[in-house]
Specification:
The chain is of the alpha/beta class. Helices cover about 50% and strands about 10% of the residues.
């Protein structure tokens, strides 16, 4: 396989807190594969609590690429991720190492599979700053989402409209004169992906999300992380855009919310985000859809994925 693209690459998608990382790590241990992060929030440096960036202990020595790529508030688009992902995959292919792409940003996975090519140059700084200011509040982000739907309804249906970075970049492309996102993206050679969608039973998933939020706010971890980042001189609005929970943490530190109110607000936003993720992946072609319940083990999930995506020798089909 050295120097050639494999017949297919396993990709694991699904809503946040469904167990994607644990499954990907188990598969990588079995096959010698390396992981590629496909979560738009985990590309941000240092902010790991609210983004649920996998720890070294969780990875257990399995290499994971495309983490910690940009500073908080720094523009990082689908095109940026796709360019880096292709470079990593080319290197792994040349070395004969399998890849497993894992993350909940469905747009990343679709861009890789369909070979999106992005038109347009760098946006004007003034326009980026204006869009960023508007997107910094929930009401402002909703206004931008409305504009997105009005300009390109079909394109809006392909976006995570709860993700400010995705909405900002899409509007930049449309305001630059592209008639639609499809026209701006174009198509090139795509990557053949065996998409596995992992979800969890609603009660199990609800408990996992509640535990994650309690760990973030109840133990004060996200407050400490945000305070440290602000002390570095990072702007508060840049921290707020890093992921769900960060805007709420900033409001606690600025005295506008108490911890319980912040956690409740973050839970509400997470619920909306999970709903959007489920809708996205429901419309994506998948070779396998799995739902974890209380009795499901990661090993059993990995067995099911291996049966659906790998040959008896452990190589992609």
């Amino acid at each position: 396989m050295s120097g050639q693209q494999p017949q297919s690459t396993v990709a694991i998608g699904g809503p946040t807190a469904s167990g994607k990382t644990a499954l990907a790590v188990e598969l990588a241990r079995r096959t010698g594969a390396e992981l590629l992060n496909a979560d738009s929030r985990q590309v941000v440096r240092r902010l790991v609590v609210g983004t649920a960036r996998p720890s070294d202990a969780e990875l257990g020595g399995v290499p994971c690429h495309l983490l910690d790529l940009c500073e908080p508030g720094e523009a990082f688009t689908v095109a940026d991720w796709l360019r880096r992902a292709r470079a990593v995959l080319d290197d792994l292919d040349a070395r004969g190492v399998a890849a497993i792409v894992v993350g909940g940003t469905g747009q990343y996975l679709r861009a890789l599979r369909e070979g999106w090519r992005f038109g347009g140059g760098s946006p004007a700084a003034e326009q980026r700053d204006e869009l960023t200011r508007v997107a910094a509040t929930p009401a402002g982000l909703e206004r931008l989402a409305v504009e997105m739907r009005e300009r390109d309804p079909a394109g809006a249906a392909t976006l995570d409209l709860a993700n400010p970075r995705r909405v900002i970049r899409a509007l930049e492309l449309l305001r630059a004169g592209n008639g639609s996102l499809a026209a701006a993206r174009g198509r090139g050679e795509g990557r053949r992906l065996d998409l596995v969608v992992l979800d969890a039973a609603r009660d199990v998933h609800g408990e996992a999300l509640a535990a994650r939020m309690d760990a973030m706010f109840g133990a004060g971890a996200i407050l400490a992380e945000v305070r440290a980042e602000l002390d570095r001189g990072t702007a508060a609005d840049a921290v707020c855009r890093a992921g769900i929970g960060y805007a709420e943490a900033v409001e606690v530190l600025e005295g506008r919310l108490n911890v319980d109110e912040a956690e409740t607000a973050a839970v509400r936003r997470t619920s909306r985000y999970v709903k959007a993720q489920r809708t996205w992946f429901r419309h994506d072609a998948a070779v396998l859809r799995l739902e974890r319940d209380r009795r499901t083990t990661t090993a059993a999930l990995a067995d099911a994925v291996s049966d659906a995506t790998l040959t008896p020798g452990g190589s992609p089909r």
